[in-house]
Amino acid sequence: MSGVDFAKLAKKIASRILLMVYPYVAWPLHLMHSGVALGYLLWLWRYGRHRIGSQPVSTESAPTIVMLVVTALDRDPRVERGARVLAANGFQVTIICPAWRGVSLQTAAQIDWGPGITFCILPKRAARFAFYFPYLFDGHMLRAAVREPAWAYHAHDLTTTFIGLIAAAHKRAVCVCDFHEWYSENVTFHSWSQTYRPHPPLKRWLFQVFERLALHTATGVITVCESIAADLEKRFQAPQPVHVIRNIPVIQPVGPDVPPCEDVRATLGIPADKLIVLYQGGLGPSRNLEPAIKAMAEVPEAVLVIRGPEHEIYGQVYHELARRVGVGERVYCVGPVPSARVVEEAKAGDVGLWTLLANVGLNFHYALGNKIFEYLAAGLPLLVADLPEARRLVEQYQVGLCFDPDSPASIGAAINRMVEDHSFRKACIANIPRAFQALRADQEWDKLVDIYRGLQAPHES
C-alpha cells in the first residue's frame, strides 16, 4: 500500500470513528437542544398556533414572504420557481439558507433571481440540525427568521416547518409549508452498508408528529402530487385541503440572447447514429442508476449520459460498473448545469431517463420528480420508473415508456423500443405539446400566487 493510499484509508477510518463517537460525546448538547425544541412545541400547540396569520397586511409596501430552506440554492428549481413567480407578482421575497453544499456568501452574491428577491446566508453550522436529533429545529435559523419584517413564512420541506411555525406565531404572520418530500415516508442513508432504508421507528414517528402539526397549524400546506396530498389529508385528518403544485418548469420563450444547449454529442464524441439517453439530476445510491447502467449492455445502439452534482464522486463508481459490464465506452458522467438551464441543456439528449429506488417507502412510490417535467419541456420522450404518478402521466398523454427500475432487462427493452421504433418516438414527441396544454403547465405556478392572494385578501387593511 502506497503512502497516499494509506493516508486515504486512515482518513476514512478516522471519519467513521468520529461519526460513531460524536453522538455520545455531544449528547448533553443534543439533550439541551431537544429540551428547547420541546418547550417551543408545547408553547406553539397551547398558545402560539392561535397567533399564526393574525397580522394585518400593510398597504404601504409589498408584503414580504420569507422563505426558509436548507438546500443547494443553485440546484433546487422548486425554490427558484416559487421565489421568481412571487416576486413577479408584487411580493418581496427573502430567502434564508445556511451555507451548505456549495452555498456561501460569495456564491449567493452571484445568484440573480431577479428584482424583489434577496438572500440571507447563515453560517454553515446553521445546517447541522438537519442531521441530528430532533432534526427539525435550529436557533440560528429561527433568530434570523424572526429578525425579518415578514408578512408570511414559506417553509420549504419538513426540515424548516417547525422553525417557520414558531417564527409565524411570534410575528403573527402567515405560514405556508411546502413539502417537497413526504418525510415520514422517506429513507435514511446507512453509511456502513451504503444503502437507503426506511426511517427507524422513532425518527419516523417524530416526523409524523410534525407533519400532523403542520397540517393542523399552518395557514396552508403544499405538496408535489395528488397521491401524497390525498394520503396526508386522510392519515392526519387534515382540516383543510392540501394544495398541489407540481414540479413543472416555468416555460418561457427562448430569446435570441439565450445561449443554446451544449452539443453533448460533439463534446463527448458520440457517433451521430447513437441514441442519447439523458439522465439529469442527483447522483448516488438513492437514484438507483446502477440497473440503467447494466441495461446498456442490452442496447448497443444507445449511450447513457449522466449529468448531475457530485459527479466527481459518484462518476468513478458508475464508470467502474460500466467497465465491468462491458459498456465503459457508452456511459458518460458529466457535471451539473444551473437550475435555470436544466430545460435548455436537456435538449442535447434524445430521450429523458427518470429512475429511483422502489419499494422503500411511499415518498419514492408516489414520486413525480422535477426531471419528468423538465424533459418534457425540452421536448424529450420519457423513459420512467414504473411508479403510480409517473405511469399515470406517461400513459394518459402517451409521451414515453415505463420500466421496472430494478430490472436491467426491462430498462434495456424500453430503450431498445425507443431506438428501433422511430414512429413511436416521433409520436411521443408530437404528443408533448398537447400534454403540456392538458396539464395547464403555463398556469401551474399561478396556484402559488393564488394561495397567497387568498391569504392576503381577508386581512388587507
Keywords, please?
seven-stranded parallel β-sheet; Rossmann fold; 15% strand; alpha/beta; 2 domains; 461 residues; 18 helices; six-stranded parallel β-sheet
Question: Summary?
Answer:
The protein is of the alpha/beta class and 461 residues long. The protein contains 18 helices and 15 strands.
Strand order of the largest sheet: 3-2-1-4-5-8-9
Q: What shape does the CA trace take?
A: globular
End-to-end Cα distance, whole Å, is 73 Å
Spatial extent as radius of gyration: 23 Å
Overall number of strands? 15
Please identify the oligomeric state. single chain
Which range does the strand content fall in?
A: 15-25%
CATH superfamily of the largest domain: Glycogen Phosphorylase B
Instruction: Decide which structural class fits the backbone.
Output: alpha/beta
Summed up, the helix count is 18
* Helical coverage, percent range: 40-55%
What would CATH call the class of the largest domain? Answer: Alpha Beta
SSE inventory with pairings:
Elements (H helix, E strand, L loop, with lengths): L2 H23 L1 H20 L17 E5 L8 H12 L3 E7 L6 H6 L6 E6 L16 H9 L4 E5 H15 L2 E6 L7 E4 L4 E4 L2 H17 L2 E4 L2 H11 L6 E2 L19 H5 L6 E6 L9 H6 L6 E6 L3 H14 L6 E4 L7 H5 L4 E4 L7 H4 L4 H8 L4 E4 L2 H10 L2 E4 L4 H13 L1 H17 L7 H11 L5
Parallel strand pairs: 1-2, 1-4, 2-3, 4-5, 5-8, 8-9, 10-11, 10-13, 11-12, 13-14, 14-15
Antiparallel strand pairs: 6-7
Helix pairs in contact: 5-6, 6-7
